[in-house]
Amino acid sequence: MRSARLVFIGFLGLLLTSCALIREPGGRYYADDGPPSGSGPDPASVPNPVPRAEKLSAIGNAPYTALGTRYYPVATAKGYQVRGLASWYGKMFHGRHTSSGEVYDMYAMTAAHRTLPLPTYVKVKVLDTGQEIIVRVNDRGPFIGGRIIDLSFMAAKKLGIVARGTAKVEVTAITPADSGGLRSTSAVNRIFLQAGSFRLIGNAETLQRRLVAAGLRRTQVVEARINKTLYYRVQVGPVGEVSDINGQVEQIRQLTGVMPRVERR
Fold this sequence. Notes:
By secondary structure, this protein is mostly beta strands. The protein has helices at 153-159, 201-213, 245-256, and strands spanning 5-8, 15-17, 64-66, 69-71, 81-89, 110-112, 120-126, 132-139, 147-152, 167-174, 191-198, 219-226, 229-236, 261-264. The chain has two domains: 5-174, Barwin-like endoglucanases (Beta Barrel); 191-264, Sporulation related repeat (Alpha-Beta Plaits, 2-Layer Sandwich), CATH 3.30.70.1070.
Protein backbone atom coordinates (compact mmCIF):
# COMPACT_ATOMS: atom_id res chain seq x y z
CA MET A 1 0.00 0.00 0.00
CA ARG A 2 1.38 3.31 -1.03
CA SER A 3 1.07 6.23 1.35
CA ALA A 4 2.27 9.83 1.46
CA ARG A 5 4.11 11.10 4.51
CA LEU A 6 4.78 14.78 4.88
CA VAL A 7 7.86 16.10 6.65
CA PHE A 8 7.12 19.56 8.00
CA ILE A 9 9.99 22.05 8.30
CA GLY A 10 10.55 23.47 11.76
CA PHE A 11 9.17 20.55 13.74
CA LEU A 12 12.35 18.55 14.20
CA GLY A 13 11.40 15.72 11.96
CA LEU A 14 7.81 15.31 13.13
CA LEU A 15 6.24 12.78 10.77
CA LEU A 16 2.51 12.93 10.13
CA THR A 17 0.43 10.58 8.07
CA SER A 18 -1.52 12.52 5.47
CA CYS A 19 -4.11 11.38 3.00
CA ALA A 20 -2.40 9.10 0.54
CA LEU A 21 -2.52 7.85 -3.02
CA ILE A 22 -5.51 5.72 -2.16
CA ARG A 23 -7.05 5.48 -5.58
CA GLU A 24 -5.98 4.24 -8.95
CA PRO A 25 -6.28 6.59 -11.95
CA GLY A 26 -9.71 5.24 -12.90
CA GLY A 27 -11.20 6.15 -9.52
CA ARG A 28 -10.98 2.67 -7.94
CA TYR A 29 -9.61 2.59 -4.42
CA TYR A 30 -6.87 0.21 -3.36
CA ALA A 31 -7.66 -2.96 -1.47
CA ASP A 32 -6.78 -1.58 1.98
CA ASP A 33 -8.93 1.53 1.66
CA GLY A 34 -12.52 2.21 0.77
CA PRO A 35 -15.86 2.47 2.59
CA PRO A 36 -16.43 0.99 6.05
CA SER A 37 -17.74 -2.53 6.43
CA GLY A 38 -20.98 -1.20 7.93
CA SER A 39 -23.26 1.51 6.63
CA GLY A 40 -22.25 4.07 9.25
CA PRO A 41 -24.38 7.07 10.25
CA ASP A 42 -27.22 8.22 8.03
CA PRO A 43 -25.80 11.11 5.95
CA ALA A 44 -29.00 13.05 6.62
CA SER A 45 -28.10 13.05 10.33
CA VAL A 46 -24.66 14.58 9.72
CA PRO A 47 -24.93 18.38 9.32
CA ASN A 48 -22.59 20.66 7.45
CA PRO A 49 -20.03 22.26 9.76
CA VAL A 50 -20.69 25.90 10.61
CA PRO A 51 -17.74 28.08 9.57
CA ARG A 52 -16.18 29.83 12.54
CA ALA A 53 -13.05 31.80 13.24
CA GLU A 54 -10.21 29.46 14.23
CA LYS A 55 -6.50 29.82 14.86
CA LEU A 56 -4.29 28.17 12.27
CA SER A 57 -3.02 24.77 13.25
CA ALA A 58 0.38 24.83 14.95
CA ILE A 59 1.49 22.20 12.44
CA GLY A 60 0.57 21.55 8.85
CA ASN A 61 0.89 25.09 7.48
CA ALA A 62 4.62 25.15 6.73
CA PRO A 63 6.10 24.32 3.30
CA TYR A 64 6.44 20.57 2.83
CA THR A 65 7.52 17.93 0.35
CA ALA A 66 5.33 15.01 -0.75
CA LEU A 67 6.32 12.43 -3.36
CA GLY A 68 9.23 14.61 -4.46
CA THR A 69 7.18 17.79 -4.98
CA ARG A 70 7.51 20.93 -2.87
CA TYR A 71 4.27 22.58 -1.72
CA TYR A 72 3.79 26.05 -0.22
CA PRO A 73 0.59 26.48 1.83
CA VAL A 74 -1.00 29.89 1.35
CA ALA A 75 -1.56 32.38 4.16
CA THR A 76 -5.24 33.00 3.40
CA ALA A 77 -8.06 31.21 1.61
CA LYS A 78 -9.93 34.41 0.80
CA GLY A 79 -11.06 34.51 -2.81
CA TYR A 80 -10.19 30.86 -3.51
CA GLN A 81 -12.50 29.26 -6.08
CA VAL A 82 -11.28 26.40 -8.29
CA ARG A 83 -12.84 23.67 -10.41
CA GLY A 84 -11.35 20.21 -10.72
CA LEU A 85 -11.66 16.61 -9.60
CA ALA A 86 -12.63 15.60 -6.07
CA SER A 87 -11.77 12.18 -4.66
CA TRP A 88 -12.31 10.67 -1.20
CA TYR A 89 -10.52 8.58 1.41
CA GLY A 90 -11.94 6.23 3.99
CA LYS A 91 -11.28 3.34 6.35
CA MET A 92 -7.52 3.03 5.78
CA PHE A 93 -6.94 6.41 7.47
CA HIS A 94 -9.80 6.33 9.99
CA GLY A 95 -8.36 7.05 13.44
CA ARG A 96 -4.97 8.22 12.15
CA HIS A 97 -3.58 11.70 12.58
CA THR A 98 -4.13 14.24 9.83
CA SER A 99 -1.53 16.79 8.77
CA SER A 100 -3.03 19.30 11.24
CA GLY A 101 -2.52 16.84 14.09
CA GLU A 102 -6.23 16.08 14.45
CA VAL A 103 -7.54 12.54 14.23
CA TYR A 104 -9.17 11.63 10.93
CA ASP A 105 -12.82 10.62 11.30
CA MET A 106 -14.22 9.30 8.04
CA TYR A 107 -17.74 10.03 9.32
CA ALA A 108 -17.00 13.75 9.85
CA MET A 109 -17.40 16.48 7.26
CA THR A 110 -13.72 17.13 6.54
CA ALA A 111 -11.35 17.22 3.58
CA ALA A 112 -7.73 17.43 2.50
CA HIS A 113 -6.16 20.10 0.27
CA ARG A 114 -2.57 20.62 -0.81
CA THR A 115 -2.14 24.33 -0.01
CA LEU A 116 -5.17 25.90 1.72
CA PRO A 117 -4.59 26.98 5.33
CA LEU A 118 -5.39 24.37 7.98
CA PRO A 119 -8.16 24.71 8.97
CA THR A 120 -10.25 26.26 6.19
CA TYR A 121 -13.96 25.90 5.46
CA VAL A 122 -14.96 25.35 1.83
CA LYS A 123 -18.11 24.77 -0.15
CA VAL A 124 -17.91 21.80 -2.53
CA LYS A 125 -20.40 21.65 -5.40
CA VAL A 126 -20.70 18.70 -7.79
CA LEU A 127 -21.03 20.29 -11.21
CA ASP A 128 -23.18 17.66 -12.92
CA THR A 129 -25.73 17.31 -10.08
CA GLY A 130 -25.62 20.65 -8.30
CA GLN A 131 -25.30 18.90 -4.93
CA GLU A 132 -23.45 21.05 -2.36
CA ILE A 133 -21.84 20.55 1.03
CA ILE A 134 -19.53 22.42 3.40
CA VAL A 135 -16.42 20.72 4.75
CA ARG A 136 -13.60 21.70 7.08
CA VAL A 137 -10.15 21.23 5.52
CA ASN A 138 -7.78 19.75 8.13
CA ASP A 139 -5.44 17.52 6.09
CA ARG A 140 -3.02 17.59 3.15
CA GLY A 141 -3.53 15.93 -0.22
CA PRO A 142 -4.52 14.64 -2.72
CA PHE A 143 -1.22 14.14 -4.54
CA ILE A 144 -2.50 12.67 -7.81
CA GLY A 145 -2.40 15.22 -10.64
CA GLY A 146 -5.70 16.77 -11.59
CA ARG A 147 -7.39 16.24 -8.21
CA ILE A 148 -7.92 19.35 -6.15
CA ILE A 149 -9.56 18.03 -2.96
CA ASP A 150 -9.84 14.74 -1.07
CA LEU A 151 -13.12 14.39 0.81
CA SER A 152 -13.91 12.31 3.86
CA PHE A 153 -16.07 9.25 3.28
CA MET A 154 -19.12 10.98 4.82
CA ALA A 155 -18.64 14.11 2.71
CA ALA A 156 -18.41 12.00 -0.44
CA LYS A 157 -21.48 10.03 0.63
CA LYS A 158 -23.54 13.18 1.14
CA LEU A 159 -22.52 14.29 -2.36
CA GLY A 160 -23.42 10.90 -3.82
CA ILE A 161 -19.98 10.20 -5.29
CA VAL A 162 -18.76 7.24 -3.23
CA ALA A 163 -19.47 4.66 -5.92
CA ARG A 164 -17.87 6.54 -8.80
CA GLY A 165 -14.81 7.55 -6.77
CA THR A 166 -14.22 10.99 -8.29
CA ALA A 167 -16.38 13.85 -9.52
CA LYS A 168 -15.91 17.23 -11.16
CA VAL A 169 -16.51 19.88 -8.51
CA GLU A 170 -16.20 23.55 -7.74
CA VAL A 171 -14.47 24.36 -4.45
CA THR A 172 -15.08 27.80 -2.92
CA ALA A 173 -13.52 29.03 0.31
CA ILE A 174 -15.92 30.50 2.85
CA THR A 175 -15.30 32.44 6.03
CA PRO A 176 -17.39 33.03 9.15
CA ALA A 177 -18.18 36.52 7.84
CA ASP A 178 -19.80 35.10 4.70
CA SER A 179 -23.58 34.87 4.92
CA GLY A 180 -25.89 32.44 3.21
CA GLY A 181 -24.10 29.18 4.04
CA LEU A 182 -24.11 27.29 0.78
CA ARG A 183 -24.47 30.32 -1.44
CA SER A 184 -21.50 31.36 -3.53
CA THR A 185 -19.01 33.60 -1.72
CA SER A 186 -17.15 34.91 -4.72
CA ALA A 187 -16.98 38.67 -5.02
CA VAL A 188 -17.67 40.72 -8.13
CA ASN A 189 -15.20 42.84 -10.05
CA ARG A 190 -12.22 40.97 -8.64
CA ILE A 191 -8.93 41.29 -10.50
CA PHE A 192 -6.84 38.26 -11.47
CA LEU A 193 -3.52 38.10 -13.32
CA GLN A 194 -3.08 35.10 -15.60
CA ALA A 195 0.57 34.11 -15.48
CA GLY A 196 0.40 31.13 -17.83
CA SER A 197 -1.76 28.51 -19.52
CA PHE A 198 -0.71 24.88 -20.00
CA ARG A 199 -1.98 21.61 -21.44
CA LEU A 200 -0.28 19.64 -18.63
CA ILE A 201 -1.28 20.25 -15.01
CA GLY A 202 2.26 19.46 -13.86
CA ASN A 203 3.59 22.47 -15.77
CA ALA A 204 0.88 24.67 -14.27
CA GLU A 205 1.67 23.49 -10.74
CA THR A 206 5.39 24.11 -11.33
CA LEU A 207 4.69 27.73 -12.28
CA GLN A 208 2.36 28.09 -9.31
CA ARG A 209 5.13 26.98 -6.96
CA ARG A 210 7.57 29.45 -8.56
CA LEU A 211 5.08 32.28 -8.08
CA VAL A 212 4.52 31.37 -4.43
CA ALA A 213 8.27 31.14 -3.84
CA ALA A 214 8.60 34.64 -5.33
CA GLY A 215 6.11 35.99 -2.78
CA LEU A 216 2.92 35.81 -4.88
CA ARG A 217 1.16 33.48 -2.47
CA ARG A 218 -2.42 34.03 -3.66
CA THR A 219 -2.27 31.79 -6.70
CA GLN A 220 -4.57 29.14 -8.13
CA VAL A 221 -4.80 26.72 -11.03
CA VAL A 222 -8.08 26.98 -12.95
CA GLU A 223 -9.30 24.63 -15.66
CA ALA A 224 -10.54 26.06 -18.95
CA ARG A 225 -11.83 24.11 -21.96
CA ILE A 226 -11.31 25.71 -25.38
CA ASN A 227 -12.55 23.88 -28.49
CA LYS A 228 -12.72 20.64 -26.47
CA THR A 229 -9.09 21.03 -25.33
CA LEU A 230 -8.47 21.27 -21.58
CA TYR A 231 -6.05 23.92 -20.35
CA TYR A 232 -4.73 24.66 -16.87
CA ARG A 233 -4.44 28.39 -16.25
CA VAL A 234 -2.23 29.76 -13.48
CA GLN A 235 -3.72 32.89 -11.96
CA VAL A 236 -2.58 35.32 -9.27
CA GLY A 237 -5.31 36.96 -7.26
CA PRO A 238 -7.70 38.28 -6.51
CA VAL A 239 -5.47 41.33 -6.21
CA GLY A 240 -6.42 43.03 -2.96
CA GLU A 241 -5.63 46.62 -3.92
CA VAL A 242 -5.55 48.33 -7.31
CA SER A 243 -2.23 49.86 -6.28
CA ASP A 244 -0.76 46.35 -6.08
CA ILE A 245 -1.47 45.48 -9.71
CA ASN A 246 1.51 47.13 -11.38
CA GLY A 247 3.99 45.64 -8.96
CA GLN A 248 2.57 42.14 -9.31
CA VAL A 249 2.39 42.43 -13.10
CA GLU A 250 6.08 43.29 -13.16
CA GLN A 251 6.93 40.41 -10.81
CA ILE A 252 5.14 37.95 -13.08
CA ARG A 253 6.74 39.41 -16.20
CA GLN A 254 10.23 39.05 -14.73
CA LEU A 255 9.50 35.49 -13.62
CA THR A 256 7.87 34.23 -16.84
CA GLY A 257 9.24 36.57 -19.50
CA VAL A 258 5.75 37.57 -20.70
CA MET A 259 3.17 40.06 -19.53
CA PRO A 260 0.27 38.48 -17.61
CA ARG A 261 -3.27 38.91 -18.80
CA VAL A 262 -5.51 41.00 -16.54
CA GLU A 263 -9.00 39.61 -15.90
CA ARG A 264 -11.93 41.18 -14.04
CA ARG A 265 -14.76 39.09 -12.64
